[in-house]
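Quick start: what a row looks like.
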Amino acid sequence: MTEATLQALNGLRDLSTLKWYVIPLLAIVMYIYATEIKKARESSNWEAVFAGLTLFGMDFFNETWNGWIMVLSGRSAFWTAPGDTALRTMVGWNIEIMFMFTLAGIIFYHSLSKEQNRTILGLPEKWAMAIGFTVFCVFVECLLNIGGHLVWEYPCWNRTFAGIWLILLIGYFHFFAAIIFMLWLKTTKKRVIFISCVYAVAIIMNIIGLGIMGWTY
């Protein structure tokens, strides 16, 4: 295994690494969701809450298959986050990243207008914003990679032209595409089923990997 992988595995899910700043971060996330849930109860519009849950579920799935890559390759995941953290939950995931992704879907949802037919540069607004958010997220990832906080091991997942395209497509774009698909579903029941399926896939993969196979990722 690479040095970055071994560092990422060191202290994995070790609660002794927790730091006090996690508490106010948790409070901020809880406050935002409590506010969105209150609005949803008053308006019967749960789209913002569902958008937040959808994106976090997609990231949960991404981090799960990334961990599988590490185990199956015996070398490295596509990305690892070996640096200092209050809690490393998977080799490429930590508590700080998790808090950010719990809010990213809500931020994306509130960036959209209520005009269904609005376009940006000739594209439907939702898809244009999805592309814009994707590009911004990958730009931040590149900065983290340059700083050594996010380590990329494979030639197909790096700052080359081909590598960036792969990160754009399966690193982030499908997060926002999943939200757009969720919003396209017109009933609450269908939306809940879709979100549940996203989480179910990730949970089943973790049950197989962590619970049955005894993998560590």
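That is the whole record. Residues 3-124+174-212 form one domain. The radius of gyration is 18 Å.
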